[in-house]
Amino acid sequence: MSVRGSPDDASTAAQEFLPDVPSGVEDLRWRASGARWLATAALTLGLSAAAACSPDVAGPAAPSPGLPDPRRPTATISTPARSPSTSPGPGATRPGIRLVAVPRPDGSFDITEEVMLPKATNILQVQLPSSGEQLPGMMTRTSPTAGNLRVQADGMNVPLASTEITTTTDVPLTTAATTLRLTYRLSGSTVRRTESRPERAASAIRPLTTIAEGGLPTNLTVRGGRLLNAVCPLLTETRCAVGNPPELSVLQGIPADKALVVLQLDLPQPQ
After folding, report:
1. Fewer CB atoms near the end CB (10 Å): N or C, the chain?
2. Would you tell me how many other CB atoms lie within 10 Å of the CB of residue 41?
3. pTM, full prediction
């Protein structure tokens, strides 16, 4: 005779057959689920990194060094032009004399001398050009004078007992100086060559400061009129014209004690 058990007995029997530790199948299912989660996370991170590195995706970037930043004004650097008064040469940037002579229709010259001495002095010795009676191209007596003389020593005006120079003389300075600037009008040093051409003339010029430092290089420039020739009687090679008319000039760097120049020129016409 068969005996049927109660439902509670069946349930108890079923629980007795359930393992206390999960089976291998359940473990595999758990591992598979974790692996899928890790793969999903890795894929998400990979896509994020690729998007950040992709050139198609806009992102913050440093401005190109070759392109100006439009938010900032562009600075312009300019080099100051050199002033004519500081152009290099004797009398300006190194010891020497720079003389500029501007002829006038009456045969006189407005002259500027800029002098730089190798050492300071408080006495300026001045000397006029020689008389033309023994000078080539002139051979006629002349009486040079320098009028309306003004002197600056190291940029300061020097008070003068007389503004007219008629012979070799000493001009005392108020203080020892190495840079000098003289302006004056040279008269009585020109000979007219012909009556038919009154503008044709010969003139003797030399720096007033010639004997201050005999070896100083001297640059002499004539501005105005028409220079035809230049002769330096105290040089071994007496012709000291450079170039050809109308671009003629006087040899540069003549020692000061030999810088006596006879100019052959056409004077400017009266206005």
Report:
1. N
2. 10
3. 0.67
